[in-house]
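>> Question from a student workshop board

For tomorrow's exercise we were told to take the sequence and the ligand below, predict the bound structure, and bring the output to class. My setup keeps failing. Could a helper post the expected result so I can at least see what it should look like? The ligand is EPZ.
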Amino acid sequence: MDKFLIRGGRPLKGTIKISGAKNSALPCLAATLLTSETVTLHNVPYVKDLITQRRLLEDLGATVLTPELHTHKVKAANIEIYEAPYELVKTMRASVLALGPLLARFGQAKVSLPGGCAIGTRPIDLHLKAFEQLGATVSLEAGDVVARAPKGKLIGAETFFEKVSVTGTENVMMAASLAKGKTTIHNAAREPEIEDLAELLNKMGAKIRGAGTETITIEGVNDLGEAEHTIIPDRIETGTFIVAAAITNGELEIKNCQPKHLEAVIEKLREVGVEIKVVDETTLSVKCCEKDLQSKDVTTEPHPLFPTDMQAQYMALMTQAEGASTIVETIFENRFMHASELVRMGADISISGNTAIVKGKTKLTGAPILASDLRASASLVLAGLAAEGETLIDRVYHIDRGYENIVKKLRNLGADIERVTSEMAETVKN
Ligand code: EPZ
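>> Workshop helper replied:
Here is what the output should look like for this input. Compare the format with yours to find the bug.
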């Protein structure tokens, strides 16, 4: 199993190009199941989760061509099965995004019920409840969710999400696009990825209004057709690199990003003392001097507030800020796994329920540590870049799920980081 070996203490300098958004490319690829025509997606990030999503589409019977690494041409003309199997869903929960499109287009779908994951139980009860509001019957059979649309067609309806759910909103938006009549989604998620998916669906011929607000309305249509779409930049990768510049007292130009998609993150990091300039619509410049970092409290919330997917990276930065900061995680019940690894490196962090208190600034020293999930692993890489000595991060397969070429990107900015196999790591240790 691969590990990352990092020798910290070098300020990052230079220009970084941000990849396409994993959390937009996943639902956009699922949306290709809504039509038998060709859908072309550009700026698809080359990360493990998208490779899994592509495999799911091909297993269902779609053809996926990649004329260029980041372009996918999908044609779901001969869908033979309507099932996302356990083998795939257990490796990537986002496979549940096939449920809405299959149910809407074929009147039936079978998706393995995702189990919990490192960051929380993450049920999909709200997705299923909304499908029932659209007239579907939903049952659980041997670990699989089996959904059917009576008479093969969903019926537009008022749907309410008790809790804001990103993939829940996406699943219902896709399903409602082919339903009979009008659907309204109340308390919808407002993430930029929702707007991006709606833009693609409208290009395919859907009638969606209000994406990006709490209330989305969808006039169902009989068919959806071909379209071409470019996936938005990854705002979490952007945020991660802003923190990378800050935690190493570096200076970065971040290109191919969308500053307006992470205003809450930029605002908070400016409060902390990071110099962030919006150069133009797709470029940020970031500069940071060690002495400037001040601890600031943060609470994670749905968009447009501070994203939970930046919480771990922010915690790593707070270990290098003067004073105590309180970090409250309101989205997932178990998203502090990185804290104990940061403590192994010398951080001062105490956890109580969904609240972490970080006392800084503390000196971080390299150590062997363990990644537990995607964003936790990003936080450990950031800590390793700031630490004195060598940090060896195990289970980096987590980071490969959502960060494209992170070792190469960091090395191009002057970081001393390498991917090593377990055997190589053994020699390093001795
Ligand atoms: C999406 O997950 C993202 N994943 C997550 O990013 C992100 O952390 C999350 O939204 C929140 O922003 C993708 O887009 C593929 P939710 P999702 O449904 O949709 C509860 C990353 O690091 N809930 O918005 O699965 C749920 O347990 C990943 O890239 C229910 O109770 O998250 C959670 O507490 C990690 N019942 C809250 O709502 C439901 O049916 C928000 O979850 C659905 C959700």
